[in-house]
Amino acid sequence: MFFFFAGGVEQQVRQVLKSGAGRCIVCRSPADLVEYDKVLKLFFVPVWRWPGKEPSMYCNNCKLFFPHSYALPPRTETTVPEALRCRFCDRPVESEFSFCPFCGSAL
């Protein structure tokens, strides 16, 4: 007997509690603190919806949900200009470097 099931459970943002509350752990973009719902879909149609247990972080750039405790702190303006910071690890880098000495990414 062959049974085909097209569906699954996914998370969807219900309400944004605080915009820009932290940074994404994957892409380092600003992430929002949100309340979310878990949604059961059957053949791509929402069938059942129930609330998540606690607020979570959500990245609008890479669409990732992750726990609030793992969030990186939001970017703050410091005395080091943005051009002298690595885009990936957010550490200060001297202007003559072509690669970040901490994470190795190209500047």
Describe this structure in words.
It is a single chain. With 107 residues, the chain is mostly beta strands. The chain folds into two domains: 7-74, no CATH class; 77-107, no CATH class. It contains no helices and five strands. It has strands at 7-23, 30-42, 45-51, 56-59, 65-67. Strands 1, 2, 3, 4 and 5 form a five-stranded antiparallel sheet that branches. A hairpin with a 6-residue loop joins β1 (7-23) and β2 (30-42). The protein is elongated. This is Zinc-ribbon 15 domain-containing protein.
Question: What's the arrangement of secondary structure elements?
Answer:
Elements: E1 7-23, E2 30-42, E3 45-51, E4 56-59, E5 65-67
Antiparallel strand pairs: 1-2, 2-3, 2-4, 4-5
